[in-house]
Amino acid sequence: MAKRIRTIGVLTSGGDAPGMNAAIRSVVRTALGKGLRVRGIRRGYQGLMEEEIIDLSARDVSDTIQRGGTILQTARCKEMRTEEGQQKAAAICKKYGIEGLVVIGGDGSFAGAQKLANLGINTIGIPGTIDLDIDCTEYTIGFDTAVNTAMEAIDKVRDTSTSHQRCSIVEVMGRDAGYLALWCGIANGAEEILLPEEHNYDESEIIKRIIENRDRGKKHYIIINAEGVGDSINMAKRIEEATGMETRATILGHMQRGGSPTAKDRVYASIMGAKAVELLCEGKTNRVVGYKHGEYIDVDIDEALNMEKKLPEYQLEIAKKLAI
Ligand SMILES: Nc1ncnc2c1ncn2[C@@H]1O[C@H](COP(=O)(O)OP(=O)(O)OP(=O)(O)O)[C@@H](O)[C@H]1O
Ligand SMILES: O=P(O)(O)OC[C@H]1O[C@](O)(CO)[C@@H](O)[C@@H]1O
Ligand SMILES: [Mg+2]
């Protein structure tokens, strides 16, 4: 029988994502409800290395469900990528009696959790990233808020773009993942979507399509460009020069990661947080919580990290068909 866990830790790691606070709140309150002690680790693995560890009570997470960012703060920690760093992190967990650890973050954060699991700390990952780039789950906390934030901003760019009959390039986040760009492309009715997964665009073809569209009477041309493709400012100059159509670039940047989480992010985060604690109480380790086919599931971290998330072909096809 698995040893009964008495103390758990929780941290947020990698880029922050709206809804992380709802997940922390759920982890804390579910664990306290089961009679566990909860340690909050500040600033992700960096804070763990520096022993920034505090006790969390039910009141410490009051009034947080509606707040963006993460009350525990987050970091990208180079030391955690080294074997010595991982051993130090596991030793600190043991020093503070942390027998189970909930890691809220993206794929990189799960790689860190996997290393800690191999060193004897029971770990469970909760997918918290605006990138939606984790294959074992259809949903990652923060995506819904980020896509709605970007969509609203792009609607505003569209108003001015149409008024001036301009071409607008709007750069959205996603260094390696194009989900945010693809969803904005469909939700905002963009003429063009540039994705990091298909990084071989023929700019002369785009220019040809802009000219054809203008001749067909379209009043604007919206290009959603993912951060991983980038170069939006120079692209705008090249397009303006080649088409004679005034072109402006807008880089939305980190505003996409902030803001109050949507209902969807709050609810998924609350359920995933509770499930993570239940898994730890069942003695499970090296698992990631996910959502697939209408159910909350858990998947082995090794398996989760080996899966490659591809963009859905059908969605790509529809986005292209609707851009006429
Ligand atoms: N291979 C690895 N081994 C150990 N730790 C890792 C590894 N990869 C990443 N990490 C740790 O996880 C942290 C977060 O990873 P990363 O910066 O890739 O963000 P993420 O969790 O994928 O989130 P997002 O992509 O949404 O910003 C890293 O700073 C590092 O501390
Ligand atoms: O905030 P940073 O460290 O510049 O990271 C930016 C990256 O983080 C993400 O926002 C995911 O958290 C990516 O979409 C983006 O490429
Ligand atoms: Mg990532």
Would you give an account of this structure?
The protein is of the alpha/beta class and 324 residues long. It has two domains: 7-142 and 261-306, Rossmann fold; 144-257, 3-Layer(aba) Sandwich (Rossmann fold). It contains eleven helices and eleven strands. The strands form two sheets. The protein has a seven-stranded mixed sheet with strand order 3-2-1-4-5-10-11, sandwiched between helices. It is elongated, with a radius of gyration of 22 Å. It starts with 6 loop residues before the first strand and ends with a helix. The mean pLDDT is 95. Adenosine-5'-triphosphate binds next to helix 4.
Ordered list of secondary-structure elements with their pairings:
Layout: E1 7-12, H1 20-33, E2 37-41, H2 44-49, E3 53-55, H3 83-95, E4 100-105, H4 107-118, E5 122-127, H5 143-163, E6 167-172, H6 179-187, E7 192-194, H7 203-215, E8 221-226, H8 232-243, E9 247-251, H9 263-281, E10 287-292, E11 295-300, H10 301-306, H11 313-321
Parallel strand pairs: 1-2, 1-4, 4-5, 5-10, 6-8, 6-9, 7-8
Antiparallel strand pairs: 2-3, 10-11
Helix pairs in contact: 1-9, 5-6
Brief synopsis:
The chain has helices spanning 20-33, 44-49, 83-95, 107-118, 143-163, 179-187, 203-215, 232-243, 263-281, 301-306, 313-321, and strands at residues 7-12, 37-41, 53-55, 100-105, 122-127, 167-172, 192-194, 221-226, 247-251, 287-292, 295-300. It is α/β, with parallel strands linked by helices and 324 residues long. The strands form two sheets. It has a seven-stranded mixed sheet, with helices on both faces. Strands 7-8-6-9 form a four-stranded parallel sheet, sandwiched between helices.
